[in-house]
Design goal:
Elements: H1 17-30, E1 45-49, E2 53-59, E3 68-72, E4 76-83, E5 102-109, E6 114-124, E7 127-134
Antiparallel strand pairs: 1-2, 2-7, 3-4, 4-5, 6-7
Length: 148
């Protein structure tokens, strides 16, 4: 299986993702209060393609379908939503708090142009699947030249 490498950070970012993740994990381990602020979490996604289509699979368990949005153009897909925070149990000590809540947004640039009229999105068991039909490749047409 071939994977499509997509970079979402700016070229000017000097810290690699492992360093940033390590710092975030260190603070979260001290207290759940250091968890990601609202609007920072990014659900995990896969993109793969066949000859006819591009498929996006997003893992977004706990997001109600009513709080989920998808916008598509011929070269990109935007997936966004909001996961409501579960109520905390009173008089308890959290030893681990990794589940992220709040708003999220991902913009994925597609490896080929797609037909925006042939998109199917389904949501089942916390997985959003988007099937995007590829546009046929441009074909060259030979034009006959008439006598003038």
């Amino acid at each position: 299986m071939d994977y499509i490498k997509i970079k979402f950070s700016k070229e000017s970012d000097h810290l690699n993702s492992d360093t940033v993740r390590g710092i975030e994990d260190m603070f979260r381990s001290m207290s759940p209060l250091f968890a990601f602020p609202e609007g920072v979490w990014k659900p995990q996604m896969d993109i793969y393609e066949t000859d006819e289509e591009i498929i996006i699979l997003a893992e977004i368990a706990g997001v109600d379908k009513e709080n989920l949005g998808v916008e598509i153009n011929t070269r990109a897909a935007k997936i966004y939503g909001d996961r409501a925070e579960m109520p905390r149990v009173k008089n308890s000590t959290y030893r681990l708090a990794e589940i992220q809540y709040g708003k999220f947004e991902r913009v994925l640039f597609l490896p080929a142009p797609i037909d925006t009229n042939k998109v199917i999105a389904t949501y089942l068991n916390g997985l959003l699947q988007i099937r995007l039909a590829k546009l046929p490749p441009d074909r060259t047409h030979r034009i006959p030249i008439a006598d003038g």
